Structure formats: C-alpha cells, structure tokens
Amino acid sequence: MRPDHEITRLGDLEPIVVNRLPAILGEVRDLLGEQHPDYAAFLAEEFDEVVTASQGFVHRLISLAEQPEERFPDLEPGVEQVVFEEIGRVQYRQGRDVTSLLSAYRMGARVAWRHVSETALGLDVQAEAFASLASTVFAIVDQLSEASLRGYLLEQADAVRTQERLRDELTELLLSDRADMATVRAAAVLARWTIPRSAAVVLVDQDNELGRALLARLDDTCLRLRRPGVLVTVVPDPSGPGRRAWLARALRGAGAVVGASVPVGRLPASLRIAEVTARLRRDHLLSDDPVFADEHLDAIIVHRDDRLLDALRRRSLAPLDELSESSRERLSTTLTSWLRHLGDRKAIAEELHIHPQTVRYRMGQLHTLFGPSLDDPSTRATLMLALNWGPAGQQPEVD
Length: 399
What we know:
Largest sheet: 6 strands, mixed
CATH architecture of the largest domain: Orthogonal Bundle
Shape: rod-shaped
Order of helices and strands: HHHHHHHEHEEHEEHEHHHHHH
Number of domains: 3
CATH superfamily of the largest domain: Globins
CATH topology of the largest domain: Globin-like
Strand content: 5-15%
Radius of gyration: 39 Å
C-alpha cells in the first residue's frame, strides 16, 4: 500500500492497465471461446491490432473519468461510436443475432473491469475517483453497446427497404407484358422469392381498412404492390393442397377478389381477370367474400365488355320492344324459365307459381313474337345468355 502522500491520480492507472491489456484480452478471448467461438477466433487473428486500439481507448476512458463535471459520462460521437456502429451493421449482414454480440460485450466488460478495479485498489485510488471510474466504464460500455445495436437496426432497416424495393420491382415485372422468364428468374433471385409453379392475383380496395390488415397478415411468400386505388397481392400456388380454404379464411371480410390460378409467366392474364371480377363485385353482380374468379368465369366472359353484352341483349330481345313494361317483364321471366327447364311446362309453372295453362298461353305469345327462331338451338343459347345476365324484363338502353 502507498502512503497517503503518494496516492495517485486516475491517470496513473493508464500505463499499468495498458501493460495488462494483453492479459485482459487473452482472458476475454478464452472466455469467448466457450460461448462465442467466432468472436474468439477474430480476437485471436487480430490480437495485436485490438491491443493497439485498446490502448487509445483506455486513455480516453480514464480521461473521461477524471473530468470533474457532475454529469453522466458521455463518449460523444467519435471513432469508437463509428467503429462499434459498423460492427453492428456487419453483425446483421452476416446473419447473426445481435444479442450474442451484446453478450460478448458484457463478458469483455466484466473481465476488463476486474483487472482495472484490482489495479485501482492496489494503488489506493480514492473512493470518489474509484466510483467515477466505475460509472464511466459501465456508461461507456452501454454507449458502445447502443452504437452496435443502432448499427444493427439501421442495417436491418436498409436491408428491409432494399428487399421491399426489389420485391416491388419483381411484382411490377410479373404483372407486365414484358416478363420473359429469364428476367423474372433473375429478379426473383435478387428479391429472394422462390418462383412457384402457379400464382394468382388478389385485389383489395385500398380504402378497405380491414382488407389492408388481412393482406398484411399473409405470409412472406406473397408479393404485395400498391397501385392507385387498389392493393395487389401475388399469391403462390393458390390451388395447392389446402391453399384455397386457407385463402378463403384469411381474406374473409376483406372484400377481396382472387384471380385465376395461372403459370407465373401469365400473371397479367390473372390480373385482367381479377380486374373484371372486381368490377362485377362493385356492381353487385357478384357477392362472394372473397370472390374466386374461377367460380364465375361465365359472368366474367359475359361482362368483359358491357357494350357487347348490351348489344347482344338489344338484338336478341328486340321482339319484346313494343310491349308494355309489365308484359315485357312477364314474358321475359317466362321465357327465361322455359329455357332453363327445357320446355317442361310443369316445372315452369311451379317455379313461377302460375297455372300450366298460363304457361301455355304465354309461350304462345312468345312464339308469335319470336317466330320460328325460338325453336332454333343457337337462338335459344343466345337468349339464355341475354336473359341470364340482365335484370328480367329490363331492356337495354338505346343509344
């Protein structure tokens, strides 16, 4: 023990601690070897460089502890902060958990503090200075840990933004007509997306809050894209085992439309089908929730171009034009039932809740209006199409 008049400043610790750095770092290396062998290997390979860097850090740390200011020790922005932030970024890029890095820091801090405190006690450092040193050491360790955590999170955020951009670009490519498979495969590799055998486009109105939430819950195999007024999602293998039932459950309440399942190279076709289906849903011609387009292909085909449907109805139902609205409605309803039941008068009467003689009378009127064409199979097919996809008795508007 030193006499009182020889009690040293904290600065007198510096050369002693610096001399002990190889022993301190060697002990840290050995401890890391048990739980964090990768870090131990790095420390062994870069041992001399780490010792040199640590010498400057010891000087700075003791200088901070000697400051008389009554404030929490602050390392402030500097080379150490930058270095430790970069360490955090590297940790993420290498696919490692940040908690293991912070655990290694704590382990090293405990070893270093034991050596430093033993040295300080051996020099009879005053209690006030010793407390300042302790608070400085652990405050700085916390700040360096925060720097690494910040670097890790920043790198993670950058990676997420990059990944989202690459996935957006891939989705745009898949939904375009310029998507040759070689380009798609290259974009899929960059976006880390496994190309499925088939896929379908799902559309949800952008203003549907529940729909947005449900789409967000779909797994990461799905690609998402925001377009004006609509949210677009590409779902892999929608026809795979259990996938349809899963989609039905996952999208219930979203007002979603699920396009046809197609090979990945034909996704623009699934998008077009989904867009027509979404329009039919908005027009209340389809009401399923969600709507699976492949269950309504007849409606989609018929309504793909409403102008053509309107022209077909106008031409095929022209013989009813001169009738009153009530007569036109009665005869249209009867004609629809007659076509549906293949002329079975009893079935028609039961469906319309009228007497079979009334059916006979109305069919007589229809044969008079339509003439021999009513017995032509192609005419009947056209009439079935026109009557099934328009309100009964309602004639198309005339331009």
